[in-house]
Design goal:
The C terminus is likely disordered. The chain has 2 domains: about 90 residues, Rna Polymerase Sigma Factor, Chain: A; about 70 residues, Winged helix-like DNA-binding domain superfamily/Winged helix DNA-binding domain (Arc Repressor Mutant, subunit A, Orthogonal Bundle), CATH 1.10.10. By secondary structure, the chain is mainly α. The termini are far apart. Helix content is about 75%, strand content about 0%. The protein has 10 helices and no strands.
Length: about 210
């Protein structure tokens, strides 16, 4: 009887890990890039994800289910730890007066990926969500996992995934629309655009 990929990986078959890499590495990289906003950091995250997968292979339960949810669960933890380490590094660098401030990764992403104003607004709004909501949004919307797979990846019930995703979408939509509106019309109440100010001054001159 031919062993499943899951069984082969549990048994320490390196070719099974290679097959897992070929099947999902590109998707893991895209997930990491959208989360971290840095090409090099995303590549490192992919490597760490597969190293962790190899280290944790003995904890896989028997069966013939897809390894994709399990792999993205590992990737989610790797990305969380990477982002936390990045924040600590930036904070340490900011305390060094002789060093220039570290550029915010979200701004770097917007300038390096031409994904449109809407995607940029969503990226900037994501940090406003709770971590649990961000993880569900990234796995279901960016990676494309279904509710059951995302639930398996995060170790939570399917109903929890549904409710978190619903909250995330609602909050992101409101935050992104607010930002886009402000960018289209940067003047606040009682303020006048430069062109309007010039026109007003011109009219005042004519009325004198």
């Amino acid at each position: 009887m031919e062993l499943t990929q899951r069984a082969r990986l549990c048994a320490g078959d390196r070719s099974a890990l290679g097959e897992l890499f070929d099947a999902h590495a590109q998707a893991v990289y895209a997930y990491a890039l959208r989360t971290l906003g840095d090409w090099a950091a995303a590549e490192d995250a992919v490597s760490l994800t597969y190293l962790e997968a190899w280290r944790l292979r003995g904890k896989l339960h028997e069966g013939d289910e897809s390894l994709r949810p399990w792999l993205f669960g590992i990737a989610t933890n790797v990305l969380h730890n990477t982002a936390r380490a990045t924040r600590r590094h930036k904070a340490a660098m900011a305390r060094l007066a002789e060093r220039e401030p570290v550029e915010d990764f979200a701004e770097g992403l917007v300038t390096r990926i031409d994904a449109g104003a809407e995607l940029a607004a969503v990226r900037r709004a994501l940090p406003s969500l709770r971590r649990s909501e961000r993880e569900v949004f990234r796995l279901c919307v960016w990676v494309g996992l279904d509710y059951a797979s995302a639930a398996e990846a995060l170790g939570v019930p399917v109903g929890t995934v549904r409710s978190r995703l619903s909250r995330a979408r609602t909050r992101l939509r409101a935050l992104a629309e607010k930002e886009l509106t402000n960018r289209r019309d940067p003047t606040g109440p009682g303020q006048v655009r430069d062109g309007g100010l010039v026109a007003a001054r011109s009219m005042q001159g004519e009325n004198r």
